[in-house]
Every structure is written in structure tokens, then in C-alpha cells.
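FORM 7B: Structural annotation worksheet

SECTION A. Query
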Amino acid sequence: MTSMRTMSICVAAMVAGAMAWPAVATAEVTVWNYEVLGNAYRVTDPGPVVPISIAGTRGGTFSGAVAVQSAKPIAGLQASVGKLSMDGADIPGGQVAVRYAAAWGPIGGGPGGLDILLESPPAEVAVQKDRALAGVWVTVTVPEDAKAGLYRGQLTVQAEGLPPQKVPVELTVAEWRLSDSQDWRTWIEMIQSPDTLALEYDVPLWSDRHWAMIAKSFQLIRATGSRVVYIPLLRNTNQGNAESMVRWIRRKDGSLEPDYAIMEKYLDLAQEHLGDIDLVVFYAWDAYLVLSFRNRSFKERPTVDESAGAFVQGQQRQAQQRWDMRQGGLTVTMLDEETDKSEPGHLPHYTAPESRAIWQPVYAELRRRMKRRGLESAMALGMVTDLQPSKEEVKFLHEVTGGLSWIAHSHYRRTYKKPSPNKTLHGIADIRYEAHATKMFQVNPAKGRLYGWQVPELRVELNRFNELNGHPLRVRQIAQLNITGDQRGLGRLGGDLWRAIRDKRGKRMGQAFARYPENHWRGLNIGCWFLAPGPDGPVGTARLENLREGVQECEARIFIERALLDADKKQRLGTDLAKRAQAVLDEHQQAMWRSIWANEDQLEVMGAISARSTHEAIWGALKRAGIKLPGFWDRAARRMRSEENRKGIDWFVASGWQDRNKQLFAVAAEVQQRLK
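SECTION B. Predicted structure
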């Protein structure tokens, strides 16, 4: 970690000698630079305006930004940018998007900072925290055949009280070509929520406007490389689905016929707007079906012990809710044959004698339909969590589905060193993919390296402390933390699962799944979301863009590491390039950890560390190293972690991170050229 001590570069030093001038201002409105991975509200002395500097590579998407602020509400905000040019080579204006970064404050229920990226300028930016503040983002999608080099253009910003002001834009493009997001090796699983959109915009489920919003969500999620789609076969799920997507028509003669129309339309949009799909998860089991509480099976309605603590009583009441719902059977959606209206209904439990005749034809039909789409191999069952189906349920579903494997979102690992096939569920069924809360990281590359992207089982991080609704830097780094650790990426991320449920005063209080407490997973409920409610439908966020760019950096790392780990390829690189490439990767890894924990002397003693979060893992590693620390949950410990975190973020933002990315992409280009 010693090299990190030489990197205390302040922003002023970064721009010394570059074109700079005082923040562009009138008596009312000011324009200044801010970091896309920072919090503009923390900036009190913007300093000189410099060109928006963006480091990118061919085939990727990258952003830079300025802020606009005033002591009064900002009206008439508009911005535009044309093509970017370099020695006769252009990146067309159609590849350069302008969006307006807004705070969640006015609508409530979201993370801090300028997080929401509106696609049209807001009518007015209100005063919050003693000033009106908005961001203007420039996002460039670099063509795959773009020439390498420095491109220049101009962003024009204006508002009432601010005549048109021009801010230079500089984009450095490396020659290395990033593959399409659907081919990325870094695993991302982001979940689309139809019900959130219906609740937010008060539109009927499966109406034309609702379908258009679902399509937009898929388009935004595609940017992360996510390739997972959920088809709920049950209603009232932990993901907040009010209806099953396979519905049951109740005929006049009392018979039931499955209807696949909603499922088919949903998959049509997923394949069109999300792209290639690796997993289609048929949501067939949830927590309410469990027959135990605190490792104790029960055969009658649980009771509440009034003498127990509040936590235990809460669990007992949840067990009662599960019991009550379970009495009806499997929760599904029924359709009236005459009116075509949907309503809640039930089918017999999987263990009932009549269930085989109901479900075996359904899964046979699902296979036929998935095969027509080229998705038969993507079929899987869900959901396994800390709770899981009984042996009888697993056996039944294994038989009627033709042996489909399962996915799991849980605290603990089930597939560690057990790639599919693994018969992990009761020795009967495989778990082919899991996201788990306990993970392993590698801090100091001098003490060894891990290559999570090489893990044979499809196993990723489940981040359960809502860090990903926090600082954009943490979002940007989360994928790299895992692929330099012992996981292939991260999963169970909410896409458009923001808080759409409001109280009587209109305050945002809950996510779509809050309606179904019987299927709550406690600490495993999805607590983050990467899309936001725009005026007419879902829009992206600053955190979504940072996640995307962080994964793009991961893909450059993986491209280089694949060459370094292959003896023949490494020999073709030559000693000098191989050494420089490894040094660039190590510098990235060291800088990442210094942003999390600013004490470099303590970082140097750490190698592989494991826990539910980075700070919990660091705490345990330091204690094992003999460093005296307060208890992890003590107030003094919280203050210490908060201070280390704040100092680390401030250091990283001012440390020349764009220059490190230029080096990363440039080295990837050298490796690509040498391997030709």
C-alpha cells in the first residue's frame, strides 16, 4: 500500500496549468464542476470551472457533470451539447445525452445527493438546504469503432438569470473495445418491479401505459448487464407482485384453465429491451409456505408469548400471518370467464394429491413456450431464502418440472465449491445461482490475489445493509470488490423498486412488498433501487450510472487478468507490459480499499477478509491482528468507522481517479494489441 501515500493529489493540483476560470456566475445563478461519484451538496467552495473531463473507451458509456446553483429557485434550466470532435473524427451528437440531476428531497423516500437523472429539464428547481441545486450530466456512448484520442466539445447551460454559458467537454477514448453488456463476465442481477410502476403512476396492471413503463425499466436495467427475469406463479410475493403472471380462468363448469398471456407479453418486452436472458425464474415458492418457526415445526396456529421481547413477539405474529395465508393454499390470480377481471384465488398445496394433475401440464407447456423463445435452458425455480421448501415440496416440483434447478437469495452460502449440478436442496434439486450475504474480499494484493470472476459456481454478493442507496462511490466500487474477492458479482438489486407506497399525508413509506408481511424476509428484503420515478415513467439515477461504469472497469480488469493468468498469453505480452499491467490493477485495488478505510498502515496487515460487509470484515481482521478496538456496535466504533469512511471518500474523489481509469483502459488496449 506504500504507493498510495504518494497519491495525495488535490483537485487544484489536478487542473494546474489547464484551462480554468472562476465559477461561471451572474448575480443569481452559478455554474461549477462536480464529480459524478460525489455529493454536490457537500461542496461549499466550488473553485474554478475546468473542462468536464471524462475517461472512456470504445463501446462503453461514460459521464461527467456540472452543477447549477442559486439562492433562489432556478427556472428555465436548459442544456445542450453537440458532437465531440478530434482531428476530423467525430462522436455524433446522438451519442451524447444531456440529463438533469435532481434530489429526491421534493418527492421524498430516496437517497441523498443529486441522484435522479431526469431526461427533460425540471420546470423549477426548489430551494433545499439554503440553495437551489441541480446537476447537468453529459453521458457519452462511445461508438465501437471510434478512433482513440482526445475528443472535445462544448456544453451550453442557461437558465433565467443565467445567459448561455459554455463549458468545455473533454473525452479521452482508449483503443480497447468493451464488449456488449449482455456479454459481460461480471454478474449483475437487477429485478424489475411491475407493481411499483402501477402504484407510483396509479395505472392499472397490464394496461398499455403500464407495459410502456415496464419496457422503459428493462431498457435502463440493460445498462448494468443484468440478464434475469422473474415470472411469478404466485401472488403476494416477497418481490411485491400482487398477481401471478400465469393466471387461471375459472370456467362455468368449475374447471380451471391456465392463461399465459401476461407472461408472454412480459417476456416479449424483456427479450426486446433487456436483451439476451440467462435466467427466467418461475417464482413458485415463498416464505408463507414454511411450516416452522425458529427451527420448530408447528401443526397448529402459532401463539404469541406476551412475556417475550418485542422482537420475538414480532416473529410470532409473522408466523401467525403465514399460517393464516397458508390455510387457503397456493396464492394465485383467477380470471372471471365472462368479465375477464382478475381476482385473488387459491390452488391446492403442492403436497395435495390433486396438484400433480394441475401443475405437470403447466410446466410442460412452459417448457414448450420457453423452447420456442430459445430460453428452455434458462428456466429455473424460485425462491429459496434462509427458509426453503420442504423435502416433499422439492421432490414434487422436481418431478413435475422435469428437474428444474433453483435460485437462492440467502444469508449463507449453499453452493460454496459446489457448482451445479449439486443436489443441494434435500439431495434432490440443484441450486444453479445464489446471492449470499456473507462474502470474502481481498484487501492487499501483496498478500495474495483472488479472482472472483473465475469462481466455478454462480455465486454473488447480496448486499443487505442498504449501502447501495448511499454514496455513489460505494456503488461504483461494489462490483470490483467482489470480482477481486471470492464472488462473481452481485445480485438481488432492486431496479424500479423504490418506495411507492405513501401514507395519508403523502409521505413515501414502503416498497411494493410491504403490502405482504407474511412473505417478508426480514433483513433480506430488497432495500435498494437504481431507478427513480420521473414525471412520466422510470428514469435512471447517478448510482445506476456509477454501477454501470464500475462494471465496465471490472470488464477491463478481467480482460487484463485473463491474459496475465494464461501462461501463453502472458509470454506474448512480454515482461515489461505484464509487469505494468499488474501494477495498474494493484493500484486500482489499493485505491479502492483506501477509500473505504483511510488508515494505510492498518490496510497493509490485511489479506483475505470475510463478513457481511466491508467494515465488519475490516473490524474482524484488525482484531485478529491484535489491534485493540471497541466492540463493533459500540458508539465509539461507529464514530471511528464513519470517520475512516468519510476521509477515504474525500481522498478518493480528489486522488485522480479519472487518470487511473485512463491508465486502466490504455493498458487494456496495449494487451489487446499485443495479443493480436
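SECTION C. Observations
The CA atoms of residues 77 and 159 lie 4 Å apart. Residues 566-675 form one domain.

SECTION D. Sign-off
Analyst initials: ____
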